[in-house]
Amino acid sequence: MAKSKNNNTNKLSYISVPSQIINSLSSSSLQSLLLSPKKSSRSKTRYLSWFTNYRSPKFWVLFLFLFGFLGMLKLGFNLDPLIPYSPYPCTTSQLQNLVSNGYLKSHMAIASNGENSHQVEVFNSVSHSQPLISSGNLKSEVGVEEAEQSEFWKQPDGLGYRPCLALSNEYNKASVGIVKDKTKYLIVVVSGGMNQQRNQIVDAVVIARILEAALVVPILQVNVIWGDESEFSDIFDLEHFKKVLANDVRIVSSLPSTHIMTRPVEEKRTPLHASPNWIRSRYLKRIKREGVLLLRGLDSRLSKDLPSDLQKLRCKVAFHALRFAPPILGIGNKLAERMSSKGPYLALHLRMEKDVWVRTGCLPGLSPEYDEIVNNERIQRPELLTGRSNMTYHERKLAGLCPLNALEVTRLLKALGAPKNARIYWAGGHPFGGKEALLPLTGEFPHFYNKEDLALPGELEPFSNRASVMAAIDYIVSENSDVFMPSHGGNMGHAIQGHRAYAGHKKYITPDKRHMLPYFLNSSLPEAEFNRIIKELHKDSLGQPDLRTSRAGKDVTKYPVPECMCNDSRTHSYL
């Protein structure tokens, strides 16, 4: 049977196409590809002949192949956004587990375990990443917030004050004979913590100058509380100390053989705030006669109001001669560099140890149980309470005599504009109540570290069980900070206040506890109004130049202007 010629026109033609391309096509594209087009009539006009080329299956196969190939190339080059890169293969899944289980804490940002420290840093950076903001209003709010944050790190106007230790001609002439004298020697025994010992060493040098005697390297009394047996050269750079003071007072490591058998005249009753005239009238004849004078308990014994040259000598000792020993300076500077490696940082000196609460007559406020422990110890050892024993706890609190606890420090910092991502170094002993006592701070400011957090394994081991050395490390990191704030007064806070002023009036926040605490107790005060009031109270307490002449009886090493700093064309720096 003969077949019709038209039967062939109803048959389908098939071509082989890769499955990847087929999957990427729509149904309409597939139909146009699989159905073989009818032959065009030769009667069609010439101007449509080019269109028939686009109806060719070969053309579409080539086109789709190129389209798919280019698409796969683009996909390959854009894998980065789809698959986040991490140098640690398990980071992404582990991070999710850490977050879900609540283990991602701020103190993990720099791990004490050396091999995991970088991985933990990755966790911390991811957990604090912020989403992109496209809203105009949100951008405006962020701009305001960034301005407030930068304001917190802004340094006070130092009014051009610079170190100015030019001594009088009379002082310099007298120095020639004083440093050559080998007949009179002063021995001093200094007590207390490291910062208290610093103050006494400063006064010891000045007293030696007043008596025109050589100073034997001060003896550091073993601290009964801390049990630290460090010697002078363990904490301070002895050779530097001698060199800086070579033209002021002769410093010797020990008594010479001519005086070694001499029984020193011992004096324990130096009155508070003794003047140079009193010291000469009391001790000069005795030291000339015996050759050796031994002084103990110099804390606050020397008057704060001295002649100009002696005030400059005080500053010279405190800010130039008393440099920490190289090992301490080395580890302290390392920790400071680690804190500053990601931008500015704040240093807090927290006084929240158990003995501080007992001695000040204050309560930690953690819970009734902790308050009862402090009260009981104070009852058992009433001699620990330092002054104003007739005041109740609440009276002390409102008078500004109590250390700030962690919640109060947190509220103060927030009111003053400290950003939530601020890096904070906290100095001081372990707080009574442990980590629980610090929760308000760590909850609001997660980048919260102390020296143990920053040190690598074994770095602090040479200094273990040496409280004075640990205090020196805290001092170095705190002094190098962009902003410093103590939670309570004390020797370290006062020393750093003067040191930062002498360094160009670096920002130092002095909490106005007496005036601000009533607002802390007012729970009905809106947060915005509270912040405004706190900022207003502290606008002049941020480390601006503060003349000691307006603060009679204050230590020049705390207020070095104007005796040790000046801002006119006659400025002479001692460097």
Automatic annotation (TrEMBL):
List the Pfam families hit by this protein, alphabetically: O-FucT
Q: Which family does it belong to?
A: Belongs to the glycosyltransferase GT106 family.
Q: What is this protein called?
A: O-fucosyltransferase family protein
Species of origin reads Prunus armeniaca
Q: Which GO terms describe its biological process?
A: fucose metabolic process
A cellular component annotation (GO) from this entry: membrane
Give the pathway: Glycan metabolism
According to the record, the segments passing through the membrane are 57-77
Write down the membrane topology. Answer: Single-pass type II membrane protein
Compartments (UniProt record): Membrane
Q: Name one GO molecular function term.
A: glycosyltransferase activity
Q: Which UniProt keywords apply?
A: Carbohydrate metabolism, Fucose metabolism, Glycoprotein, Glycosyltransferase, Membrane, Signal-anchor, Transferase, Transmembrane, Transmembrane helix
Q: What is its main location?
A: membrane
Query: Where would one find the signal peptide in this protein?
Result: none
